[in-house]
Write a structure and sequence with these properties.
Blueprint (H helix, E strand, L loop, with lengths): L1 H10 L12 H10 L10 H11 L4 E3 L3 E6 L5 H12 L14 E6 L2 E6 L4 H9 L7 E7 L6 H13 L2 E7 L8 H10 L13 E3 L8 H15 L2 E3 L5 E10 L3 E10 L2 E2 L3 E4 L2 E9 L5 E2 L1 E2 L4 E7 L8 E5 L2 H27 L5 E2 L6 E9 L2 H13 L5 E10 L4 H10 L2 E5 L5 H9 L4 E4 L2 H13 L4 E19 L3 E14 L4 E5 L2 E6 L1 E6 L2 E2 L2 E3 L3 E6 L10 E11 L3
Helix pairs in contact: 3-9, 5-6, 5-11, 6-11, 10-13, 11-12
The site of guanosine-5'-diphosphate has 16 residues, from helix 4.
């Protein structure tokens, strides 16, 4: 009877009405007071803990998960297409209808699961969220082209993730293919081929003709056997979301990689803050399944909302548990944001290495030209001492990309841009995850910043501040003003009085000052964001539509880190 409960609570000094909610401890106490045995519900943390525990029992081997990476145009898609067309066992409908970005390929007695979203974005964004999905990376390198920037990027990502690499030296059918040169290139990047005494399998292939692909698949199986991959097959499934979308007709659709347990129709699933009962499980050939075992990737219908790619999922007992976990996650996410802010103000961006207390500052460096990049990497190697040092996780030429930002997130690195800027995709991650990013145009200033971060000293640092950025829409020649760029100010303000830079593909190509700044026919001192203007740059005639003009300032500041 509610009135007697309210009365009892009053007696305890707790004033409530019938609509009030009381906390768990009070409820437990009350239930006892009334002579019953309270049954306490499990908390999210306990549920998740239990799920983890089961993992170590009854392990059986599982198929390796493979991702294909490499430089653009080196043949990733061609290779995946060839494998899918010739190696995947056809579904009941005959013919191949690819539904999802993953499929399984039989190789002898083994099976390989391919994640068919080539490129680093998929891999690194999942990694950045802490999901290690891949066991082996097939690194595709075109034999007529060699190691290129994205090849290096892929190597960096795979190494940072501790993933095994098997190299496919592709386009061997071409005239200019030079196997030994490519092996030399790769050895210089610390990937030493087996026949040179190293431990990296390198298989010459032609993805176009299919030559060598069987050998490549066998190499992958061999590599994965060394890894002794295992999973438990019984119990509640858990894994990672590989892709997800909101389908107009089917609702939330998620491609999930099962990592442990067996996923069944009717299971209650929670992924991030999305929950739902599995309505159907669809395999990569489009057929409906009743269940899915470890290392298989399947499409799932029935979730309440669309989980993010890279998010983990787990099966729980019931709706209540699912809600409990989803809410717990949301509150934890908030806590993490607060913690992260606090951490950063204390300068806790160091990573402890091994047993020793040595601090390591992880750095990702992007520069405008290779020579500068090498000079900076060499200078960074020189700083540091027994207590603290710098580790260049990756360095390269060109604008700061989504892949760089994801790698920074995954490895807790700071990002340093030397005469380069970040693109929009990278910006989203840097801002959303509050990564540390700084721009420089003078090498010793960059080194000074790293030293200051390393020592935690409160040195005054000269910092560049970007005041405004304008995008060049068109370029015309005026008899009176010379070359004028018609611009749209996209961020901040453009000031006549401050120094400017011209950027192409997020790389600085000119630094100087403005000759003229005009709104319609008037000379002005400042143009604000969202406004068009005409810009003339002193002694520079090379500007093109699509370039950016950036106004900056240099300030001395005392930094507290
Ligand atoms: P991706 O950007 O890495 O996915 O590269 P693609 O698979 O799209 O291939 C880029 C180009 O290289 C295409 O024109 C392919 O036909 C070609 N290509 C890929 N593999 C081979 C190969 O083994 N031999 C030759 N000759 N061309 C290839
Ligand atoms: Mg492609």
């Amino acid at each position: 009877q509610s009135s007697s409960i309210i009365k009892h609570l009053m007696g305890m000094g707790v004033t409530v009405t019938i609509n009030h909610t009381i906390d768990a401890d009070t409820a437990e106490y009350l239930v006892k007071e009334f002579g019953h045995n309270p049954v306490k519900e499990e908390k999210a943390e306990e549920i998740l803990e239990k799920i983890k525990e089961i993992k170590t029992q009854n392990l059986k081997s599982r198929a390796p998960i493979v991702t294909v990476m490499g430089h653009v145009d080196h043949g990733k898609t061609t290779l995946l297409d060839f494998i899918r067309k010739t190696k995947v066992v056809d579904g009941e409908a005959g013919g191949i209808t690819q539904h999802i970005g993953a499929y399984q390929v039989p190789v002898g007695d083994s099976v390989i699961t391919f994640i068919d979203t080539p490129g680093h974005a998929a891999f690194s964004s999942m990694r950045a969220r802490g999901a290690n999905t891949t066991d082996v990376v097939i690194l595709v390198v075109a034999a007529n082209d060699g190691v290129m920037p994205q090849t290096e990027e892929a190597i960096n990502h795979a190494k940072a993730a501790g993933v095994s690499i098997v190299v496919a030296i592709n386009k061997m059918d071409l005239q200019g293919a030079d196997l030994e040169r490519i092996k030399g290139d790769l050895a210089a990047k610390d990937l030493t081929p087996e026949d040179w005494g190293g431990n990296i399998q390198m298989v010459p292939v032609s993805a176009l003709k299919g030559d060598g692909v069987d050998k490549l698949l066998e190499a992958v199986v061999l590599e994965s056997e060394l890894l002794e991959l295992k999973a438990h097959y019984e119990g509640q499934a858990q894994g990672v979301v590989i892709e997800s979308e909101l389908d107009k007709f089917r609702g939330a659709v998620a491609t999930m990689l099962v990592q442990n347990g067996t996923l069944k129709v009717g299971d209650m699933v929670v992924s991030g803050s999305a929950i739902g009962k599995v309505k159907s499980i669809i395999s990569s050939d489009g057929s409906k399944l009743k269940s899915a075992e470890p290392s298989s990737a399947v499409e799932i219908l029935g979730l309440s909302s669309v989980p993010d790619a890279g998010e983990t999922f787990q099966v729980v007992k019931n709706d209540k548990e699912a809600r409990e976990i989803a809410e717990f996650r949301e509150s934890k996410l908030k806590d993490r944001k607060v913690l992260k802010q606090r951490d950063e103000s204390l300068g806790n961006i160091f990573e402890s290495m091994g047993q020793s207390d040595k601090k390591v500052l992880n750095v990702i460096l992007k520069s405008d030209v290779a020579g500068t990049s090498e000079a900076i990497v060499a200078a960074l190697a020189d700083i540091g001492n027994d207590d603290a040092s710098v580790k260049v996780v990756s360095s390269g030429v060109g604008g700061i990309s989504e892949s760089d930002a994801n790698l920074a997130l995954a490895t807790e690195s700071i990002i340093l841009g030397f005469n380069v800027r970040l693109d929009n995709a990278a910006k989203k991650i840097v801002e959303g995850e509050e990564l540390i990013l700084s721009y420089h145009s003078i090498i010793y200033e960059l080194i000074d910043e790293v030293k200051a971060r390393l020592s935690g000293l409160l040195d005054p640092i000269i910092k560049e501040e970007i005041i405004g950025t304008a995008e060049v829409l068109e370029v015309f020649n005026s008899p009176k003003f010379g070359q004028v760029a018609g611009c749209m100010v996209v961020e901040g303000s453009i000031l006549k009085s401050k120094p400017v830079r011209v950027l192409r593909d997020n790389v600085v190509i000119h630094q100087g000052e403005l000759d003229s700044l005009r709104r319609f026919k008037d000379d002005v001192g400042e143009v604000k964001s969202g406004t068009e203007c005409g810009v003339g740059i002193k002694n520079y005639k090379d500007i093109q539509p699509g370039d950016k003009v950036e106004v900056f300032d240099r300030k001395e500041e005392t930094r507290s880190i």
